[in-house]
Amino acid sequence: MNVAIFGKNLSGNDVRYVQSLMEKLNADDGEIYIYAPFLSALSGMISFSRQPKVFSTKADISGNVDYLFSIGGDGTLLDTITLVGDSGIPIIGINIGRLGFLSGISKDDISPALDEILEKKYIIEERTLLRLVTPTHLFGDFNFALNDLTVYKRNPLSMLVIRTYINDEFLNTYWADGLIVATPTGSTAYSLSCTGPIITPDSENFVITPIASHNLTVRPIVVRDNSIIRIVVEGRNLDCVIGLDSRIQRIETAIEMQIMKETFKINLLRLTNQNFFKTIREKLNWGLDIRN
């Protein structure tokens, strides 16, 4: 199989895990493509039995690789989304970060996990993306997100005024520090920390979650993902940040945005012994008796 490998940085403690991955992949006859900046970061730390190929864009790997391995935490995996785009390449997350909701393979389980992947013992999960449309074409061609869109104030002494519409019907004016529009995948990220609900990955919904709302009765709301969410951001001395996953743009004037479901989905690979409910039990310590 041909694989692409994406990562950012690598600590000395994790070198042996990545070396093990490379050796396991080199035992196969396929080609290995490594993201150019990551290959530079690995220089002098990892040895290769045969020289890997290098990639920098989606065009370099689309149609050329069977899987993309993301080595890091969930933030690293989110950064692969713009490289994979609509190519359909399944993403495999190897967690050498912290929580790892999306990066489901532990670094201690790399070898058995690869055996299962080679034997096709896995499930491909399609994950919904959201798409952002703005008059100024914020984020250019990379105007989609797997987790969420976030609007957040920069001035700590003022609030944002965010008028929100669902399919052109007025929903609410949020007086708040910001607003999150999250996919089901993103419901366990920033939205969750702002008291948003957890939504199963196959739910056809978005969740709209205010950040520190001035009106305490305003709560998160779940809407169908075939809705068009329109938000208008205003405020005194407006200075806010618009985020799509880990990408941000600073805005200093009033802006209108439309958020809708993207026309394509992202494929995440999970092993057969993993599932969403098991993940939230383990990551969030559900059912753990802490009385002792």
Spatial strand arrangement across the major sheet: 3-2-1-4-5-6
Distance between the termini: 49 Å
Looking at the structure, what is the overall shape?
A: globular
Q: What is the CATH class name of the largest domain?
A: Alpha Beta
The rounded Rg comes to 20 Å
Helix content: 10-25%
Corresponding CATH superfamily of the largest domain: Probable inorganic polyphosphate/atp-NAD kinase, domain 1
Strand pairing plus helix content: what structural class? alpha+beta
> What is the N-to-C succession of helices and strands?
EHEHEHEHHEEHEEEEEEEHEEEEEEEH
Uncertain stretches of 5 or more adjacent residues: none
Polypeptide structure, described:
With 292 residues, the protein is an alpha+beta fold. It folds into 2 domains: 146 residues, Probable inorganic polyphosphate/atp-NAD kinase, domain 1 (Rossmann fold, 3-Layer(aba) Sandwich); 132 residues, Probable inorganic polyphosphate/atp-NAD kinase, domain 2 (Tumour Suppressor Smad4), CATH 2.60.200. It is built from 8 helices and 20 strands. The model has no long low-confidence stretch (mean pLDDT 92).
Q: How is the topology of this model organized?
A:
Blueprint: E1 3-7, H1 15-26, E2 32-35, H2 36-42, E3 53-55, H3 58-61, E4 67-72, H4 74-79, H5 81-84, E5 91-95, E6 105-106, H6 110-118, E7 122-127, E8 130-133, E9 144-145, E10 148-153, E11 160-166, E12 169-176, E13 178-182, H7 190-193, E14 205-211, E15 221-224, E16 229-234, E17 240-244, E18 247-251, E19 255-261, E20 266-271, H8 276-284
Parallel strand pairs: 1-2, 1-4, 2-3, 4-5, 5-6
Antiparallel strand pairs: 7-20, 8-9, 8-19, 10-13, 10-17, 11-12, 11-16, 13-14, 14-15, 16-19, 17-18
